[in-house]
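Appendix B.2, paired examples.
Example (i):
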Amino acid sequence: MKHITYLLLTLIILLTISCEDYYGEKPEEIIPTEVILWGTVYSVESTDSLNISSLEENELTGTIPSTIGYLTNLRYLNLEDNELTGVIPASIGNLTNLTYLNLMDNKLTGAIPASIGNLINLNHLDLDHNYLSGSIPSSIGNLNSLTYLNLGDNPFTGSIPQEICNLVNLNFLDISDSYERGGSLGGLIPTEIGNLINLTSLRLDGNFLTGPIPPGIGDIINLRELILMGNQLSGELPQSICNLTNLRYCFLQYNQFCPPYPSCVEDYLEYQDISQCN
């Protein structure tokens, strides 16, 4: 009897392999009509908004299921201020109709998936205050519709990708405080930062950034908030910084800038380490 059972199993395996060889590929994935997320059923066809920010008695826990990637009609996804853990699934890149994605203030870990660059309709991306690590993916530079990008308070390593300067519609950019989370984001401020002419707020404080401020900073004439304090930035400040006549908040303290300083910002330069200056 055991011998017959073994022969039957072998025959089934051989037939399966033969079918795959005959058709040249495995059967296509069956797309579900419904997805269950955190105990709630969502229709794949009709769900275009998912707003589950924390309520005192209803805080999400666990991971973000990869099956969220089936909700391809989503335009708005807000999971902020919960207790979500684990990685951001690569399937998030399937949600190409998203215009708003907010995962801030959770306990998410791991790298930002490169597939985030598929979300070319995003206007708002907030991943602030998590434990996301590794390098910021260069694919984030594909998100040309972004007006708001907040990656602050995460332990990133590596450097700020040059591709971020492709995001010419940005009004708000925050990549601050990797140090506070145990990260080591460093390197230079991207040389083409001046391309971001629509920025009103630029926060890169609390990292390990080095080198000078690029002269192109003076092209961001709508800037109202410039916060670069708590880095290892050095060299002389570009005179073009005085083009920023709309600045209301400017924090350049705790760096290594060398005098003489442009008169327009000399009041914002306390606590400079000038030991390496000539």
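Example (ii):
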Amino acid sequence: MPIKLQPMNRFKLVILLFSITLTTAACGVQLAPGEIQFFTGPEPVVAVTPTPWPTPTPEPTPTPMPTAPPATDYTVVPAAVPAPPPPPPITGAKNVSIIKYNDTETALVLVDGVEYTLPYATLPAPPPPPPRPPTPEPAAEPPLDWDSRLDGLGVWVNRGQSASGQPIFRLIRIEYEDEAQSNGLHHIYVEVLDENGQRILGQPVIQAWNTGQAVGHTENKPWPEYALNFPMYGAQGPDNYTIYVTGARSDVVNGLGLPAGQPVNYRLTFQRQYE
């Protein structure tokens, strides 16, 4: 009696028969159409050859980077600058004069009419400065026998300037006679001696005052009289008298007069000297 199957079961049966057919074919069993044969022998062994995994492509070996050459200490050699032509030798020049000194250890030099800038080391040594003349020592004050009472009367002496080899009359003595010594006289007595201490005759002497002057000459008067005298009439002050020897350089005596109008005398001795 035929078996009635449900549609779903039919589908499953078809699938089962299809699988059996494939299995028998693989085992070499021939089945007639519609025949189902159960296989009772040993379970066939299906040899399955596994597909090998592809061999991996080896990674390319990286090419090593070239090693940089060691650093080299390079020395920069400047290009050679041609040396300037040497200056003309100073030693052979006829005329060499230094115009000015620079601040760079060089000087502007005129060599035979041509200007050059030369280092100091090549310049000729300057000539030594001329020796300084020795400083003359101040001349000693000529000796003078001075009456100290004259300091309070305003009497003073201007020393004359001597010249080498020229005569000069120096005041060597001045005496003062007050009213108690003058015997009522009011004179300036003058004696003039030569370099040997002898009286000079005819030597002119000047007596000057603010409005004029008088000239006297030495005479051969008996000793101890002085060779010349001048009378005084003005009081000390505006009418003071000045005495000096003329004919050569001479010291000058100033401030002679009559103190408070009192009669006094002055005795002056000049001597000719060569200094």
